[in-house]
Write a structure and sequence with these properties.
Two copies of one chain form a homodimer. Chain A contains 21 helices and no strands. The first copy, chain A, is mostly helical. Chain A has one domain: Farnesyl Diphosphate Synthase (Orthogonal Bundle). In chain A, helix 13 packs antiparallel against helix 14, helix 17 packs across helix 19 and helix 17 crosses helix 20. Chains A, B: Keywords: Isoprene biosynthesis, Magnesium, Metal-binding, Mitochondrion, Transferase.
């Protein structure tokens, strides 16, 4: 899932701060509480952005006319310049609302859902950041009849505030759907219990994880209904279906599908890119933008999501180093075949037989890694990620021109994110 | 859950037909397929209603002016008179639509969801039956201005057809939410795996059951959005939250809550009565009825649901006989304390200590049964069920008077259901 990778950024960030996020859940929660103790949401927000900053070693795009660009630096000045900081205050508000939203009538359910928001403290802010930046990036005049213009005279500010609130609501709903999908993804299959239990399940149990996810989905649905926009409701309900379809595709891959690049990209869209692309589109629809603009917003989200996942697949093999086998190798160990290996098979067709055996035997993993090392698989996966990142940036560049400084800054931040996603090494 | 009990009716019905529905899932599916082979939906419908008829030994309310009433009989004539038969054709259409709806892009997911519809072949029709009867029962003039009346002149029939389609959609959505909740309820907690695995989980695995449920929820959400009625979307989204809350309340009861009748009734409302009551209300809202009528529809559903569950709790102790201990004793074995035992504790406070030990020890179950047998617990639970059934019937009787024969027949059928629910013995 999208968050998993982004959570890695968080882990690394916290590690840099000598806080081991990848430790036991109890310790992680304690660490989180410690971070939050002064001002729960404000503090974690600023620390978090600092952490996120540390992990991007690539180039940073100039975010403001008077701002200085640093490459690979992590100075205090730069911390205030990153895309995330542009919407930091709104993100705090949003986090507050999400937190109060999970307070249900049954304390255990609330703590279950909240626990997961804590666990995903980093990842949960990436999507809202993109969506709030997109809202500003599309903050431009909407085609309107003269009658509409005259009837809106004098209430433009009120309408703008109302629109922003509705767009923030999309950001919250997106986060709820995302966390719900994570809760449900972590429910173990009967056969999986032998592989060891994830931290979430060991804390909550399968059933409570399912119920907490359902609770979030129902809250998301109530919030969606309040937006009173049928197209947006359908769009985000469809996303839930995509998340399910993607997860099921991964669970039930036939040996033929396992070797199919098209199948892999379709699954990646469903599992990773559908949520961010459709919620970007929802931001445009709520603003009353044209179908063309809504499509560009969708294309940005889709390509950003695909680029992110492709890099995630590469990092699963390489980890922090450039060499193979230094990553967690989590995908291949679970029999999940991703882009690097699919490209390697194109060069070495004999590798397909090994892949089709499913990697239950660790010797097969070694053989696959050897082939992968001799192939262009890693590089071609990176190239494909670059292609999608470029397409995402092009979508932003294709938006109708606008002179407003806030709009331009947010668009640059969105383009900056496309660079960050592909240049990250963690 | 609501369905579980109604499924028992089905099982008994099929047993009467010498088809053992409580056999292995594969066999059950084969039996179902056999029943459906000629005309999948029409055949199972007529056979099913016949079965359902057999299991009600109570009095039947006259359903039509020219129809003859039989008490405790199961003649072919009577099979055509029961509440279910009034909406049989529509139910077939609905079942067809549900079936085509579960055909997703991923065959395994579709078969997973469809498998469950097959499993719940009986129960899945109870809620739609109530809702379609309610739709007809409320088919009466809506307060309308003269301007609205003149603008609708000549299109009344079209509007009526459109309304009916939207109300059928509520019936479908209700069924989807219900089946999704069953799928998720059946996901096992880590601690539960030792208790033995339910048939669904053994066939699908935890994760696929979760995904199939999510899939149904997302389809329900898309269908809800298409109704373009914010109040109805909120109402049914709230139901999902209630189902979750009820299940969580049951899972996380403290020893104090375990002895609290109010807590028990609240949980029962969330788990059993919220879905049917709120979907009855949705039927009224879509018809544009007044708040008073919508409340009566809600009250009918709520009290029918509560009465049903109370009888279910009694039957879990008594089974088909009048004596204790002949039921499956499933609740008490799982440490779930229901109305009969709560009433018994009021008479014998010393029983509370036994209850608080949680029934891990089977000797405690025997002690509790002995106390229960000496108490009025069973009778008081039945009396409470009767009270709610009467309140449900009163809600129907309080609807604005109407001379239309279809309307009157549907109202009688809804009242008839309140008798059937409390007089059933299986």
């Amino acid at each position: 899932m999208f968050l998993r990778g982004f959570t890695r950024i968080s882990k690394a960030g916290f590690n840099n701060k000598r806080l081991h996020w990848s430790c036991s859940p109890a310790l992680a929660t304690a660490a989180y509480n410690q971070l939050c103790s002064a001002n729960p949401l404000k503090d974690i927000t600023s620390k978090h952005w600092e952490c996120a900053e540390i992990n991007f070693t690539g180039s940073h795009v100039l975010l403001g006319a008077r701002r200085q660009v640093h490459y690979g630096a992590t100075s205090a000045v730069e911390d205030q310049l990153d895309p995330f900081s542009l919407v930091a205050d709104e993100l705090s508000l949003l986090a507050n609302r999400l937190r109060s939203m999970v307070v249900a009538e049954v304390p255990k359910l609330a703590s279950g859902a909240e626990y997961f928001f804590k666990m995903g403290v980093e990842g949960k802010r990436f999507r809202p950041t993109v969506l709030l930046l997109m809202a500003t990036a599309l903050n431009m005049p909407v085609p309107m009849s003269s009658a509409e213009r005259s009837s809106n005279f004098g209430v433009v500010d009120t309408l703008a505030t109302e629109l922003r609130t509705r767009q923030q609501c999309i950001a919250e709903i997106t986060e709820m759907i995302h966390v719900a999908s994570l809760l449900h993804d972590d429910v173990l299959d009967d056969a999986d219990t032998r592989r060891g239990i994830s931290s979430l399940n060991s804390v909550m149990g399968n059933k409570l994880a399912v119920l907490a996810g359902d609770f979030l989905l129902s809250r998301a649905c109530v919030a969606l209904a309040s937006l009173n926009n049928t197209e947006v409701v359908s769009l985000l309900a469809k996303v839930v279906e995509h998340l399910v379809t993607g997860e099921t595709m991964q669970m039930t891959t036939t040996s033929e599908q396992r070797l199919n690049m098209e199948y892999y990209m379709q699954k990646t869209y469903y599992k990773t890119a559908s949520l961010i692309s459709n919620s970007c589109k929802a931001i445009a629809l709520l603003a009353g933008q044209t179908a063309e603009v809504a499509t560009l917003a969708f294309e940005y989200g889709k390509n950003l999501g695909l680029a992110y996942q492709l890099i995630d697949d590469v990092l699963d093999y390489t980890g922090t180093s450039a060499s193979l086998g230094k990553g967690s190798l989590s995908d291949i160990r679970h029999g999940i075949v991703t882009a690097p290996l699919l490209f390697a098979i194109e060069e070495f067709p004999q590798l397909s037989k090994v892949v089709q055996r499913g990697f239950d035997n660790s010797a097969d993993i070694d053989i696959a890694l050897e082939y992968l090392g001799r192939s262009q698989g890693i590089q071609r996966a990176k190239d494909l990620a670059q292609k999608h990142a470029t397409q995402a940036a092009q979508a932003i560049d294709s938006l109708p021109e606008n002179d407003d400084e806030d709009v331009r800054r947010s668009r640059r931040a969105l383009v900056d994110l496309t660079h960050r996603v592909i240049t990250r090494t963690k």
